[in-house]
Amino acid sequence: MAEGTDTWFVYLARCADGSYYTGIAKDVAARIRAHDSGKGARYTRGRGPLVVCATRRCRSKGAALRLELLVKGLTRAQKEAIAEPALFRAFARRTLR
User: Fold this and answer.
1) pLDDT for 24
2) Other Cβ atoms within 10 Å of 88 Cβ, number
3) If I label 22, which of 4, 11, 47, 49 is the partner at 20 to 30 A Cα–Cα?
4) Intervals of the chain under pLDDT 50
5) Exposed/middle/buried for 31, CB within 10 Å: 0-12, 13-18, 19+?
6) Helix or strand or coil: residue 47?
7) CA distance 38 to 87
8) Integer Cα distance of 24 and 7 in angstroms
């Protein structure tokens, strides 16, 4: 998934317990493997396996961090509402203007 050295992705993943986790990575597949093996974020330990619901490519790490913060601030219902790829992309376009 990683395309260039400056390309970052924001991802929204559903944990096995039904909760959502949002993170950033240059290689989302490798990051999900890290989460599933217990070497990712503390929140995801014991909550795997994770299923990626949606990703969004960002032009910089800063843009990815801003979008991640915005998504993490959403309620569970709001995260469920954007958990499809097209809806996640539309949310990102609206919020990163």
Assistant:
1) 97
2) 22
3) 4
4) 1-4
5) buried
6) coil
7) 29
8) 11
Contact indicator for 68, 24 with CB cutoff of 8 Å: yes
pTM: 0.87
Q: Which residue has the tokens 């559903």?
A: 14
Residue 55 carries which side chain, given as an amino acid letter?
T
The pLDDT assigned to 11 comes to 97
Q: Cβ neighbours of residue 76 under 8 Å, at least 6 residues apart? A: 19, 20
Per-residue pLDDT, 16: 93
Distances (CA, A) of 94 to 49, 53, 66, 78, 97: 30, 19, 13, 14, 6
Q: Which tokens go with 27?
A: 């290689």
- Domains annotated for the chain, with CATH where assigned, are 8-91 (3.40.1440)
In angstroms, the first-to-last Cα distance of the chain is 24
